[in-house]
Amino acid sequence: MSFEYLALLAAACWAFGSLLSAQAATHLGAFAFNRYRMLVAMLLLWGISLLTEGWRTLDSDSILLLTVSGVIGIVIGDTALFAAMNRLGPRRAGVLFATHALFSVVLAYFWLGETLWGLTLVGSSMLMGGVMIAILFGKRRAEQHIWETNQYGLASGIALGLLAAFCQAVSTLMLKPMMLSAIDAIAASAVRMSSGFLLHLLIFLLGFQVARSHLPMTARILWLVIINASLSMVLGMTLILQALKYGDAGMVAMLSSISPVLVLPMLWLVYKRTPAWGAWLGALCTVVGTMLILWH
């Protein structure tokens, strides 16, 4: 399977996983939810790696690089994203985080010498614009999150959202040269997840209030955590790493950024509510942009 389709499948995994995460994240709190799903993902990834003996492809240099990537992307990036959501609401924070694809393209140009030309550049621009339109105008005014009416911490929220996007881009691009080697994608994901989980666990053990669960774990919430971890962190991230083996890092980031658009039809099916006009326009731009990229 080509890297374009691997990146699109990863976006679909993240979209479906995010749809299932809302109840669990609200029940446990963002930090506790993230900690639990990283634990589940870490155990699953190491289990698969042991069975397939993918761990044998790891060496000390790759482990160090994967650990740093996990700290930047999972710990710093995710923490900044949750803090941005607290200040701006999920919609506006989502728009800022979507810029990670733009950061990836720019950094890939200077860092890896990757360039976008012709229909690929046009398609990428339409895709990125479509994602942002869908997030910005995909909800009716009555459906806006209560946080979005609060302008407190607007500047810091914007800075944190951009920091989260930048960290996501850097952590992914760091892996591109390494993924060209014989390293196993599942073992690589396991190392990244382990570094993220251990630091989140340290935050919890140090007694920070934000890391504590809002409500006790239940069987239903645990099941939702397991499904989300399996889709988003195990399958989704492994597909991204596999895509990096065969494709440009900037293009992989661009195609995988469409998950907010893929969520829209899923929400329509679940809640039986027709998306707003912005969702339709954003989805149309995203689809056309993706088709131009795939036809390049």
From TrEMBL:
<feature type="transmembrane region" description="Helical">
    <location>
        <begin position="34"/>
        <end position="51"/>
    </location>
</feature>
<keyword id="KW-0732">Signal</keyword>
<feature type="transmembrane region" description="Helical">
    <location>
        <begin position="152"/>
        <end position="175"/>
    </location>
</feature>
<feature type="transmembrane region" description="Helical">
    <location>
        <begin position="221"/>
        <end position="244"/>
    </location>
</feature>
<comment type="similarity">
    <text>Belongs to the EamA transporter family.</text>
</comment>
<feature type="transmembrane region" description="Helical">
    <location>
        <begin position="277"/>
        <end position="295"/>
    </location>
</feature>
<protein>
    <submittedName>
        <fullName>DMT family transporter</fullName>
    </submittedName>
</protein>
<dbReference type="InterPro" id="IPR000620">
    <property type="entry name" value="EamA_dom"/>
</dbReference>
<feature type="signal peptide">
    <location>
        <begin position="1"/>
        <end position="24"/>
    </location>
</feature>
<feature type="transmembrane region" description="Helical">
    <location>
        <begin position="119"/>
        <end position="137"/>
    </location>
</feature>
<feature type="domain" description="EamA">
    <location>
        <begin position="156"/>
        <end position="294"/>
    </location>
</feature>
<feature type="transmembrane region" description="Helical">
    <location>
        <begin position="63"/>
        <end position="83"/>
    </location>
</feature>
<keyword id="KW-1133">Transmembrane helix</keyword>
<feature type="transmembrane region" description="Helical">
    <location>
        <begin position="196"/>
        <end position="215"/>
    </location>
</feature>
<keyword id="KW-0812">Transmembrane</keyword>
<feature type="transmembrane region" description="Helical">
    <location>
        <begin position="95"/>
        <end position="112"/>
    </location>
</feature>
<dbReference type="InterPro" id="IPR050638">
    <property type="entry name" value="AA-Vitamin_Transporters"/>
</dbReference>
<dbReference type="Pfam" id="PF00892">
    <property type="entry name" value="EamA"/>
</dbReference>
<feature type="transmembrane region" description="Helical">
    <location>
        <begin position="251"/>
        <end position="271"/>
    </location>
</feature>
<feature type="domain" description="EamA">
    <location>
        <begin position="5"/>
        <end position="135"/>
    </location>
</feature>
<dbReference type="InterPro" id="IPR037185">
    <property type="entry name" value="EmrE-like"/>
</dbReference>
<keyword id="KW-0472">Membrane</keyword>
